[in-house]
Amino acid sequence: MPKSFLPHMAVLIFAVSYSGWVKAWGAEGHEAVYQIAYLELNSKAKRVVDSLIKEEKNDRFKSFHQGCGWPDHRGSAQSKRKKDHYINIPRDSSNVEAEECINTAKCLFTAIRKDISILKHRELSKKKKWQALKFLGHWMGDLHQPLHISFSDDRGGNDILLKKGIGCRKKLHDVWDNCIPEHLMKKMNVGKDRKKFGNLLHADISNTQRKKWLSTDTLAEWANESFEIARQSNVLYCFKKGKNCQYSNTDIIYESNSHSENGSQRILDIPASYETDHLDTVKIQIQKAGVRLGNLLNSVL
Questions:
Q1: How confident is the model at residue 8 (pLDDT cuts 50, 70, 90)?
Q2: Nearest to 147 by CA among 256, 35, 23
Q3: Are 157 and 176 spatial neighbours (Cβ–Cβ below 8 Å)?
Q4: Which homologous superfamily is 3-300 in?
Q5: Domain extents for the chain?
Q6: How many beta carbons lie within 10 A of that of residue 192, not counting itself?
Q7: Is pLDDT larger for residue 63 or for residue 107?
């Protein structure tokens, strides 16, 4: 088994069960990740993937890139894995050092390892493997969305509201899930064609970038890249006070209803340039996720 999927002794990370049905990258980001990954597959892995896709009965998910959205849709299989979408870090931790969950049995790390094991299992049905493949690719996308490697008390920025909406949403989390990827699609002039979006992002990846992104091969390292982005001051997600990355300048964590006017939710006045400022970051994170997913599938399949 590659060292990427071996457990580590140190424990810093725990997953959280968010209330409600919270999505990761919107369809734009996830489908681009899948399309990039598909273009990265070697011939053997591509044959396996194509054979698994034939197990799909729902017309909405009949292609590999469309299958990425399935884990975000309501269903019994998906509802059992709500905790698998996230990794939450203690506010006094500055990096991700472990590939284990704490205070819970499930998180992105365990989810990825679980679906890899299903894909490797020779005796399981193609139907089960196709489901595992849809989950696995989705988890890899989640791992590269910065606000999915974040803090449990504010639900990854879902409890950070915007004074005025930019783009498409009024929560900081949604800006990263949806607004910035949509803005990137508009800038690349692809309309709503997510497959074309993925194709163009793939064509823009240099061999130097690919080599660099594959030079780190542990889930903890990839999670840490996302967490480092989430902690950057221009992301406006948290306030650094010593070791802590606080919820606000005055509150270490988010505590619902601790203030009479509006709970303790922050109302964030983000600059009009916010989406533009982070376009390159989102672009690279989607490209990284696709390249790494493709490489992983080449190994597993």
A1: very low
A2: 23
A3: yes
A4: P1 Nuclease (1.10.575.10)
A5: 3-300
A6: 11
A7: 107
